[in-house]
């Protein structure tokens, strides 16, 4: 795979909700190819961006693309779940805005040897950060049948999770499952052909589940989101783009929790909890891509953007 390729989703909407302004400091917690970061830097010439990515190859590509911006960009290799430590290590105490554009990049998906895609045969890896952690093969060969069923059912929302888990466990006793195509064949064998959904490949949900589990994506999202919201200055804005319902649910609930004021029972005459809303939600419904954008970037089809402003 050659140069880094990834079309940033919802570019105009990100700028509209983030409102980047000269002299302010923004966080791009999912730097990828640096597409959204360069939009911020272009739209607010005196601004600065701290860009985080778990994937060293994304960071290298972004560093090359953003070199012309000099010290307006600072790049960090790490999980955005640890954003509080990452920004403090750079001497930054608070943020004027953040963007999280979740999931894997087109570049990661299309780089065969990373093992994210069920459409290319490759080692079963799926780690965004190849410098540490367990691979998808480690999970598939090492977890109990019950745990595999839970992961595939919960993170993949796959109704055939039990059968898929049992086929995996039966097959791995023959020999360890080490490639994407072997796993695809096992899944195809487990899901009755008459029940295959024409619109999505039978391996889609299991691969989504394993990617989430390998990269502890939901836990990182929850921790990273809370930390980034806590770091926002009053008037600072947070924008999150998610690509499936599990992520969107977390984003929606945490935004609502931060937007909520008093939680005292109605029958109490006065507030005793003292809770004040910490953010205002700017997107009642999630913002989605226009037909024009999805025509040129199919990945944008499932993108949902939610945004808040800190009070
Ligand atoms: C959809 S891409 C971002 C593309 C980017 N917005 C652009 O316009 O070029 C998501 C990126 O976030 C990274 N990523 C996902 N989860 C992460 C996490 N918890 N911490 C740090 N980086 C993460 C992935 O490695 C990937 O490079």
* Low confidence ranges: none
Number of DSSP-assigned strands: 7
Determine the number of helices (DSSP H or I, runs of at least 4 residues): 13
Beta-strand content: 5-15%
Molecules bound to protein: S-adenosylmethionine
The rough form would be described as globular
Radius of gyration: 21 Å
Q: Mean pLDDT, rounded to whole units? A: 96
Main sheet summary: 7 strands, mixed
Write down the secondary-structure element order.
HEHEHEHEHHHHHHHEHEHE
Q: Major sheet: order of its strands? A: 3-2-1-4-5-7-6
Helical/strand content category: alpha/beta
User: What is the first-to-last residue Cα distance?
Assistant: 45 Å
List keywords for this structure.
about 300 residues; single chain; binds S-adenosylmethionine; alpha/beta; 7 strands; about 40% helix
Q: How would you describe the overall organization of this protein?
A:
By secondary structure, the chain is of the alpha/beta class. Helices cover 42% and strands 14% of the residues. The protein has 13 helices and 7 strands. Strands 3-2-1-4-5-7-6 form a 7-stranded mixed beta sheet, sandwiched between helices. Strand 1, helix 2 and strand 2 form a beta-alpha-beta unit. Helix 7 packs across helix 10, helix 8 packs across helix 9 and helix 11 packs parallel to helix 12. The longest helix has 15 residues. The chain is globular. The termini are far apart. The mean pLDDT is 96. The protein binds S-adenosylmethionine. The site of S-adenosylmethionine has 22 residues, from helix 2 and strand 2. S-adenosylmethionine (SAM) binds next to helix 2 and strand 2.
């Amino acid at each position: 795979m050659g140069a880094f390729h990834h079309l940033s989703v919802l570019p105009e909407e990100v700028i509209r909700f983030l409102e980047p302004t000269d002299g302010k400091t923004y966080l791009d917690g999912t730097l990828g190819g640096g597409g959204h970061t360069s939009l911020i830097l272009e739209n607010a010439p005196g601004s600065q961006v701290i860009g985080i990515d778990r994937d060293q190859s994304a960071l290298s590509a972004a560093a090359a693309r953003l070199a012309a911006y000099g010290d307006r960009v600072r790049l960090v290799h790490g999980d955005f779940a640890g954003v509080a430590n990452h920004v403090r290590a750079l001497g930054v105490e608070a943020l004027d805005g953040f963007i999280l554009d979740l999931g894997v990049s087109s570049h990661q998906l299309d780089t065969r040897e990373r093992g994210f895609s069920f459409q290319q045969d490759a080692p079963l890896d799926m780690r965004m950060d190849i410098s540490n952690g367990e691979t998808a093969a480690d999970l598939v060969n090492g977890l109990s049948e019950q745990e595999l069923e839970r992961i595939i059912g919960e993170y993949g929302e796959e109704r055939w999770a039990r059968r898929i888990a049992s086929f995996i466990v039966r097959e791995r006793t023959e020999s360890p499952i080490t490639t994407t195509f072997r796993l695809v064949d096992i899944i195809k064998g487990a899901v009755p052909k008459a029940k295959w959904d024409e619109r999505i490949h039978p391996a889609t949900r299991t691969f989504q589940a394993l990617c989430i589990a390998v990269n502890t994506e939901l836990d990182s999202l929850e921790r990273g989101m809370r930390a980034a919201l806590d770091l926002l200055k009053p008037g600072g804005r947070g924008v999150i783009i998610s690509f499936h319902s599990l992520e969107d649910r977390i984003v929606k609930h945490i935004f609502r929790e931060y937007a909520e004021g008093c939680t005292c029972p109605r029958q109490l005459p006065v507030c005793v909890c003292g809770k004040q809303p910490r953010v205002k939600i700017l997107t009642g419904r999630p913002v989605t891509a226009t037909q024009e954008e999805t025509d040129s970037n199919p990945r944008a089809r499932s993108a949902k953007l939610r945004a808040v402003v800190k009070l």
